[in-house]
Amino acid sequence: MKSHFDNDLSDIGKWPWSIVPSRAFGDKRLKDADRRVLGALCAFVNRAGVCWPAMETIQQISGHASRKSVFDAIQRLKSAKYVRQLQPKDYQETKTGWKSNRYQVLWLGDEPKPTFEDIQSAKKLQLASDDEPTHEEIGGVGDDTALNTLSHTLAHAYARAVQSRTGQVRNVASEINHARRLALSDISIEQVRAATVQACDQALARRAGVPSLADVARLIDGVQ
Asked: What is the chain's pLDDT, residue by residue, as a tens digit (224 residues)?
């Protein structure tokens, strides 16, 4: 189940697709509105099903008119054992507790609670605005699926920056290997964007060709 919405959030952390528990589709306890919210949650989960998009984010992706409708849907999903709300005390977090709700999507309904490491790894897939006010943590994702997704995101960020600065369209597929190396180095999307703009400006000043992502990577290495 894919979420369809007006604003493209693919550059800031969510998956470009949602893998939803298949048992939800035939469950008559759920409304279509509940399945839309479940799909929105699943756009942010890690392998353990952990996620914490804000109510506003879920509302935007699922197309609900109000936060209350999102809240009501989550309550029904919790009651039907598709979603578990995680408590900060169970993971020895800060004294003040978490600043946003942590959820676990339950594929089968009887999964064990996630480990502390599961919670930490899920940070890579949350929008910066949905987490505590910390440094952007989109880089350095652990598993291959997440790494591939981040690599494509970085490559697209480069291509968009090139097009906006020079009007030239770049082949994203040809830049994936360089994007993967940047992803493994914990390079952020904003770093790629800023360095691409700088590289394009330098190339235009020299009347040189459009910089490759390898050129951008060298520029990033030079300023770190």
From this structure: 433 333 343 334 567 788 899 999 999 999 999 999 999 999 989 888 998 887 888 888 999 888 788 889 999 999 999 999 987 777 755 554 555 568 999 999 988 988 888 887 777 666 655 554 332 233 222 335 567 777 888 888 898 899 888 888 888 888 888 898 898 887 888 899 999 999 999 999 998 889 999 999 999 988 64
**Are 123 and 149 members of one domain?**
no
Q: Is residue 86 part of a domain?
A: yes
Question: Residue 79 belongs to what domain range?
Answer: 10-130
Domain count across the chain = 2
Q: Which residues pair with 104 in a beta bridge?
A: 50, 84
- Whether 101 is in a domain gets the answer yes
Calculate ∠ Cα 212-194-165, nearest 5°. Answer: 65
Q: 122 in a domain, yes or no?
A: yes
Contact 131, 100 (CB under 8 A): yes
Does 84 share its domain with 179?
A: no
Are 178 and 126 contained in the same domain?
no
Q: Is 99 left (phi over 0), alpha (psi -120 to 50) or beta?
A: alpha
The whole-model pTM stands at: 0.51
Residue among 138, 141, 131 at smallest CA distance from 188: 138
Helix, strand or coil, per DSSP, at residue 77: helix
